[in-house]
Amino acid sequence: MGLQGWVGWFGTLVTEEGETAIGTGLTLLAAAIAAALVLPLGWLALDVLELGPQAIQLSFAPTTVQVLVRTVGLVAVVTAGSMIVGVPLAVLTVQAAIPFRRFFTIVAALPLAIPSYLGAFAVVSAFGPRGALSGVLAPIGIEHLPTVYGFLGASIVLTFYTYPYVFLTTRASLLSLDASLVEAARTLNSGRWEAFRRVTLPQITPGITAGALLVALYTLSDFGTPNIMRVEVFTQFIYARYNAFMRDYAALLSLQLVAVTAVILAIESRIGIDESGAYESGGNRGAVDLDLGRLRYPAMLLPAGVGLVALLFPIGIFGMWLVRSGPGYATGSMAFSWSFGVNSVYVSLLATGGAVLVALPIALQSAVSGSRLASIADRAPYVGYATPGIVLAIALVSFSLDVLPALYKTIPLLVFAYVVRFMPQAIGSIRSSRLQVDRRLLEAAGTLGRSRLSAFRSITMPLILPGIASGAALVFLTTMKELPATLILRPLRFDTLVTYIWRVQEAGLYGQAAVPALVLVVVSGLSMGVILAQEGGRDADQ
Amino acid sequence: MSEEISPAHSDRGRPIEGANADATRETLLELDSVTRRFDTEAAVDQLSLSVREGELLTLLGPSGCGKTTTLRLLAGLERPDSGTIRVRNEVVAGEDRFVTPEDRNIGLIFQDFALFPHLSVAANVAYGIQDRPDDAIDRRVEELLDLVGLSAYGDHSPDSLSGGQRQRVALARSLAPEPDVLLLDEPFSNLDVGLRTEMREEVRRILKAADVTAISVTHDQEEALSISDRVGVMHDGRLEQVGRPEAVFQNPASRFVAHFLGHAGFVTGRREDGAVSTVLGSIDRGRLVGYDPAMDGSTIDVLVRPDDLGISDDDATGADGRIIHRQYTGPSFVYRIELETGAVVHAQVNHVDRFEVGQAVTVDLTADHPLAWFPRD
Fold first, then answer.
1. Are residues A99 and A297 in contact, defined by beta-carbon separation less than 8 angstroms?
2. Among A484-493, B171-180, B358-367, which stretch is predicted with the lowest mean pLDDT?
3. Cβ-based neighbour number of residue A158 at 10 Å
4. 8 A C-beta contact, residue B139 and residue B65
5. What's the first-to-final CA gap in chain A, in angstroms?
6. SS3 assignment for A46-108
7. Max CA separation in chain A (angstroms)
């Protein structure tokens, strides 16, 4: 059954009278999905139980505590760094009349499109031992570059690639800020800075916080950067224990990581950031003018500098590797083959198909039904989205080895992991496109003599197809660049673009990684494009 | 418009200063040929105006006439391209000087009130007086909440208030720092119709009790006429006329002002022998504003408003026109009548006098005040 046929079949279900039976069915389906996710996570707990009393001892072992402290430290530093970079950039691009404002807004947001592990890879392949720049600098007498590995290096790289979260959420708050409030403060005898501190800042704090939490979650779950930069945080440490065949210990650490993630999510829901911004008021939004005078020219360098470095540096480094030859080039079994690209596309397509099939019923039901069960069914899959990829991968390894050995390191298990992780993206975009279908359109079709099924086919379907398409595109593109689950769950000798980059960077043979890395930059750029197109469409609808 | 005003009427082309509201008090605020352009369009064009201490002046005009820009120029939220603004004889804008909003001591009440949503009512009122000692702040906040009748609402969040209450908070907040001038931007446009009349009286009471000089802008002629000591009518960035509400209403300086203040109709006639013969009969020169013998022999349009006309059944003298529309307002009917000459006028009559649309009627000039007139182009 093709997608169209399937949706049609599903249409007959949701348009029948007696929504409860279907609702229950869908809720069961969503529950099954949630269970499919929670079950492997439960296996982690079982693994840990097998450790017995040792579990407690290991939990409080100095190494474990150090990892926890280092992880929290990295999250704190990167989050703070993102705010320091992101907030001024947002204020500058929204309120100051800097030249080429639109261009620099895009430049400042673009680093989000590049996965931080590519940035880390670029940094290491440039400044690390045998890196591109060490070869250039050696003849002019610079023998030793300060090491880029470690906490500081990882903090800087992560800040450069995550500040756009803060930048974008702060921008949104600033744009929805009622400019009359600032003007009111000015007429009440506040100067520019005082008005910013006493009126603007409290208004945009929810936006800044929302972005900061996203940064914290990203940093916490990021696998590639700490591994490449060799910082012993949870994700790196878990992978190292796993490779040393200490699955139980890896499981224990995974549970701890889940716990820290849960704490951040709890803070997020506690603060209760609603997407529309905490304070709504009418009037002339976003029209605040920050007159910088001549300073606007140097001010322009800020977004230009930050954005362009994050964007152009990796592209430049990969480009350098592309055009030069010599040491650092992979040959033999490490040579690049386009079949890796084919493999990437293959698993990504499978993941996309699976995610859309599962997401459709959940999204459509949750959009039309106000029941609490439906909203739980809609929310439950997001657990998979929030779980760090490394944790999911370790859990699925344990689960498959203990329960279904036939699935261990097979394509179906890998695809299952992708679906669990990325399906919420499809749910989100299908759901919002369904919500935009005005109920009255269907009622109008009814008064024009169409049956409910016919109305679904002729009206709902064409209107939600773009939503399905962009959801599918998002799943495809994010799967293409997914790292930890691919690395751990792939079948033996099955390489994708991502795992190839991983292997050559581990071996320190950077040369041929240039092609797959550049391909991934393009893929990432496209997925950003999809998100922007979605948001643009949404704005235009309002 | 000045072009429409004859040389004989040139005195009315200039803003007429009303001899109102205690002329003994000093001029507080002065605009001198102030111009503000956006791109090439002049939003405010060569505007001159002076406001006396304690006065409540309303700038009235259609949207886009430049009235809100004028307020923003006064507040310091816009810079004039040319001209000078003085407060207490001190230049605050112009002559290479620009005083920022925070140093101007001019308060502004926004159309949507712009209450700070993250602060309580009391904290909103206290916002502009943070430089005072704590107990002085508390006293002042209490005093103002009392003045606006919201003593019990200090801890409330602005979100929990009704429209009228928000407006009271906005007033209290702006009055707290004791501004030289208070500006009000379309103060009643965000209120329900029923609340508007009540708040007009209330705002006027509060402003007078605080003895503050205030300039308000609106497009609602009824509001302007009812709350103001003086009204200024703006059109295309220019001030067409300034004066006491009743003076401007009765004696508009231009056709635009006449139309904007409502239901203006014109009857055309020739001036001969000190009288004007019109379709409604001869109007004696004593019933015209500013009789000028030099105008004899010319054709003029006499302004007639609904309350200047009465209608009766087609009598022996013959009908003057036909009713083409009827609007029932409760206390009265307003009839729209097409006269034989093609001109359209309105007549307001008692609600017991009922005529049908299409009926031929006799229209009588019942006005007991001098009528304004404009020369025919």
1. yes
2. B358-367
3. 28
4. no
5. 36
6. HHHHHHCCHHHHHHCCHHHHHHHHHHHHHHHHHHHHHHHHHHHHHHHHHHECCCCHHHHHHHH
7. 84
Is A202 part of the contact surface with chain B (CB cutoff 8 Å)?
Answer: yes
Question: Per the structure block, which two tokens stand in for A20?
Answer: 């409860």
CB B203, CB B226: distance < 8 Å: no
The answer to whether B9 and B290 are in contact (CB under 8 A) is yes
Q: Which of A183, A185, A281 is closest, CB to CB, to B117?
A: A281
Quote ipTM for the complex: 0.76
Rounded-to-integer distance, Cα B231 and Cα B49, Å: 11
Contacting residues for B135 by C-beta, under 8 A, at least 6 apart: none
Q: What is the pLDDT of residues A238-258, one digit of tens each?
A: 898 888 888 888 888 888 898
**Dihedral angle over CA of B285, B287, B292, B297, nearest 10:** -50
In terms of Cα–Cα distance, which of B156, B221, B161 is closest to B188? Answer: B221
Q: pTM for the whole thing?
A: 0.78
Residue A145: left if φ>0, alpha if ψ -120 to 50, beta else—which one?
A: beta
- The pLDDT tens digits of the residues spanning B305-340 come to 888 888 887 666 677 888 899 888 888 888 999 888
- Residue B276 phi/psi, 5-degree rounding, is -120, 125
Tokens of B192: 């329900």
DSSP one-letter string for B32-61: EEEEEEETTEEEEEEEEEEEETT-EEEEE-
Q: Token digits for B102?
A: 């925070």
- Rg of chain A, C-alpha, whole Å: 25
Chain B closest-CA separation from residue A93 CA (Å): 21
Q: Would an 8 Å CB–CB cutoff place B173 in contact with chain A?
A: yes
* Residues of chain A positioned with their CB less than 8 A from the CB of B104: 187
Order of strands, edge to edge, in the sheet holding B281-284? B281-284, B275-278, B265-272, B299-304, B373-375
Looking at residue B302, its amino acid is V
Torsion of CA A118, A119, A125, A126, to 10 degrees: 150
3-state DSSP call for residue A173? helix
Residue with tokens 């002339």: A284
Identify which of B108, B116, B117 has the shortest CB distance to residue A187: B108
**Which pair of tokens denotes residue A68?**
């926890």
